[in-house]
Design goal:
The complex is a heterodimer of chains A (395) and B (346). Chain A is an alpha/beta fold. Chain A is built from 12 helices and 15 strands. Helices cover 32% and strands 20% of the residues of chain A. With 346 residues, chain B is α/β, with parallel strands linked by helices. Chain B folds into 2 domains: 208 residues, Thiolase/Chalcone synthase (Peroxisomal Thiolase, Chain A, domain 1); 128 residues, Peroxisomal Thiolase, Chain A, domain 1, CATH 3.40.47.10. Chain B contains 11 helices and 13 strands. In chain B, the strands form 2 sheets. An 11-stranded mixed β-sheet of chain B has the order 4-3-5-7-1-8-13-12-9-10-11, with helices on both faces. A two-stranded parallel sheet of chain B has the order 2-6. The longest helix of chain B is centred in the N-terminal third of the chain and has 16 residues. Chain B is globular. The chains are: A alpha/beta (395), B alpha/beta (346). Chains A and B meet through α5, α6, β5, α7 and α8 of A and α3, α4, α5, β4 and α6 of B.
Chain lengths: 395, 346
């Protein structure tokens, strides 16, 4: 059974809609800069892909009156609303028992670092956020808000969370557990992740430069994106944006926070996704890479691509140079970008690249251009060796 | 159909390495801690870096991984993963004012570190996923296994449900009203008639495939629902039974997730009434309440189907029947997340 994308929504540091994100990508805009939303020791020494709205503005934009809603949930709501509206899903359809919701998320309410610190260390009075810290809180917030009756799930495989959410949702449709699914991911910037990634020495104080020989690490970002996926049967006459053609999830089984030099997990994920899609490597026209701009990732991913494509690596880029690494949201954010690539038959430039990595020689796309694109691969690799690849196709 | 070939449960009770459900281990201060017996195969240097949830998971899955070396993948359900490490890292952030921190707690704190460690220790490069949907995290792991087996008949998967008690999540759950305010131990859990329950933790790991040969039990069907409407849940339960048990089959045992929280008693009464004649069993005084305690319940159901005997410790109501063929589980997490799981004798 074919599974189609019939709607999408997004909010990132380069825009609060699909259209504004596309415009920024076409123009090579970057949303990465100094942090304004909350205080941290690193607000001015590291760079972040921060969504340019305060929590209050996000609440007003989405019409949220209830208390205890984290920024992670607010970002999710914003993208969710756009997605269901672009797929013309009525309230009735959203709450149907055959409509599922799958959220990829790693931070949950931990963006509320100070509130969590207080609530976790005492038992007198809780803050309004006591029930909003876990990753599941986002999906439960959306479920409650829209009275959803289908399968609801939350997946956390670190940076590949929402790629796995898209995969799980697609399988729910194929296996008959759902007729349509709303799938995506969300994460907000948090002192927790900033300090976590900083302790691993992989954050950059410069704008990240994926696949560059002198890359100096990643920029954390935030955002949310959701897709509406529908089975061939229920899409009616709706406009189809793309097809979810292939997917695979593998593990590198090497190290908790580093990919193996041989890139076994990434190579296996890409290979299995192609198998699942019934495509050959040469069918892939473009790769939206994981491309975090860390020393480890970009070299390993390059080698895996060289091996998979037998030295004929197709055009590729990393949109993390525009929005930073949005962690649990990145798989869904980049899925939206892949679908834009397919819909408009165009590729967006990877920013800040100067010189190829010695030994790989790979050069990402550096200019906006029109291009005939049928099949696009999107990679997401996470801590814990969690590697996923998705393939989206033009319909 | 998902056949259970092997299972290991490390819980607050005597469930590992030998199972003895004759004697009840008592709770202290509203907590039932799992009796961690560490897997001797894990290098001490690696063990030192692991939090309790990861230790529990690798200790339960260790013997399974040894016996089944061709697993296709690892599917984990955990609401919080290594919560202790998570808040330890958070406390460091605040106390050292974001100074130079060591990454160990951070890396161990991500919920996917559990499945990752199992994958790493067994060099398993197959499917590896972590479901974290609070009270339905383990159920989604089971559903995932159902779908994997449908696509890959003949493959074998490890499915596990794990959560740990940390002082911090205990405080948060206390503030949420999930923990009883007055002193109550697990022996008197069901008599308290007040809000909240007692905290628990544990791991249950299962080797599953779609091959009936050699299996004692199978998970036949599974349904999840978010609802705060008792009638809706009751209707869904009845529909689940009628869809999955043909006319001449009956439920022999209802394993109820009753947890001593008076707010949700009505739900359990309705589900009990929907299976007249069935024996009723309860287990939260054994496992304590936690988001993935349904993994303990599935382990217990598999154990009962193997033994063909219901441990006296869990009986709420006897039935006349002798053979136990069908067990249905009803779980209710905080009055919102409900699940029904049907297990049958293989």
């Amino acid at each position: 059974m074919k599974v189609f994308v019939t709607g999408m929504g997004i909010i990132t540091s380069i825009g609060d809609s699909v259209e504004s994100n596309r415009k920024a990508l076409m123009e090579g805009c970057c949303g990465i800069g100094m942090l304004k939303g909350f205080s941290t020791r690193y607000a001015e020494t590291l760079l972040f892909g921060e969504v340019k709205f305060t929590n209050e503005e996000l609440r007003n934009m989405a019409g949220v009156n209830e208390r205890g809603v984290s920024r992670t949930s607010l970002l999710a709501l914003h993208a969710f609303k756009q997605a269901v509206s672009s797929a013309s899903l009525s309230h009735e359809v959203i709450s149907d028992s055959k409509t599922a919701l799958i959220v990829g998320n790693t931070v949950g309410g931990m963006c509320l670092t100070d509130e969590l610190y207080k609530d976790a260390n005492q038992r007198d009075t809780g803050s309004e956020y006591v029930a909003s810290y876990d990753c599941g809180s986002v999906g439960i917030f959306l479920q409650q808000k829209f009275g959803m009756k289908g399968i609801i799930n939350t997946i956390n495989t670190a940076c590949s969370s929402s790629a796995n959410a898209i995969m799980y949702g697609t399988r729910l449709i194929r296996k008959g557990y759902a007729k349509r699914v709303i799938v995506g991911g969300t994460d907000s910037l948090a002192k927790f992740t900033i300090n976590g990634f900083n302790s691993l020495h992989i954050l950059s104080s410069a704008h990240c430069s994926p696949f560059d020989a002198n890359r100096s690490g990643l920029n954390l970002g935030e955002g949310a994106a959701f897709l509406v996926l529908e089975s061939e049967e229920v899409r009616d006459n709706k406009k189809v944006l793309a097809e979810v053609k292939g997917y695979a999830n593998t593990n590198d089984a090497y190290h908790p926070s580093t990919l193996s030099d041989t890139g076994d997990g990434p190579l296996l994920a890409m290979t299995k996704a192609l198998e699942q899609a019934g495509l050959a490597p040469a069918d892939i026209d473009f790769v939206n890479t994981h491309g975090t701009a860390t020393e480890n990732n970009d070299e390993v991913e390059s080698r895996a691509m060289i091996s998979l494509f037998n030295n004929k690596v197709p055009a590729f880029a990393s949109t993390k140079s525009n929005v930073g690494h949005t962690l649990g949201a990145s798989g869904a954010v980049e899925a939206v970008y892949c679908i834009l690539n397919l819909l408009h038959q165009e590729v967006y430039p990877s920013l800040n690249f100067n010189a190829p990595i010695a030994g790989t020689g790979l050069i990402p796309v550096r200019e906006y251009s029109k291009a005939p694109l049928d099949h696009i691969m999107s990679n997401s690799f996470g801590f814990g060796g969690n590697c996923s690849s998705l393939i989206f196709s033009r319909v | 159909m998902l056949y259970i070939h092997h299972s290991i449960c490390i819980s607050p009770q005597f469930t590992f390495p030998e199972v003895n459900l004759e004697e009840l281990v008592r709770s202290t201060d509203h907590k039932l801690y799992a009796k961690l017996i560490v897997n001797p195969d894990i290098p001490p240097a690696m063990l030192r870096r692991m939090g309790k949830a990861v230790k529990l998971a690798v200790s339960a899955s260790g013997p399974l991984l040894k016996q089944y070396q061709n697993l296709e993948g690892i599917i984990v359900g955990t609401a919080n993963g290594g919560m202790e490490d998570c808040i330890k890292f958070l406390n460091q952030i605040i106390q050292y004012e974001e100074g130079v921190l060591t990454p160990t707690n951070f890396v161990q704190s991500t919920p996917n570190a559990i499945a990752a460690q199992i994958g790493f220790l067994s060099k398993n490069k197959g499917y590896n996923i972590t479901h974290v949907h609070r009270g339905l995290a383990f159920e989604n792991a089971l559903l995932d296994a159902f779908m994997q087996l449908d696509d890959n008949p003949g493959h074998t998967y490890l499915v596990a449900g794990i959560d740990e008690i940390s002082d911090y999540n205990f405080n948060i759950e206390y503030l949420c009203g999930y923990i009883k305010k007055e002193p109550v131990d697990n022996v008197h859990l069901y008599e308290s008639n007040t809000h909240g329950s007692i905290a628990g933790e544990g791991v249950a790991a299962f080797v599953v495939n779609n091959n009936q040969k050699g299996a004692f039990s199978c998970v036949k069907a599974l349904k999840m629902l978010h609802s705060t409407d008792k009638d809706e849940v009751e209707q869904a339960f009845k529909q689940f039974l009628s869809e999955n048990l043909s006319d001449n089959k009956t439920v022999d045992l209802l394993l109820s997730g009753e947890n001593g929280d008076s707010r949700y008693l009505d739900y359990y009464r309705l589900m009990e009434a929907a299976v007249p004649g069935a024996a009723i069993g309860r287990y939260k005084h054994l496992s304590g309440e936690y988001q993935t305690s349904s993994a303990f319940a599935v382990w217990l159901a598999d154990y009962v189907l193997r033994q063909q005997q219901i441990p006296e410790l869990i009986v709420k109501q006897h039935s006349g029947g002798n053979t136990i063929r069908n067990i249905v589980l009803y779980t209710n997490y905080q009055g919102l997340q409900h699940s029904f799981i049907l297990l049958s004798k293989s």
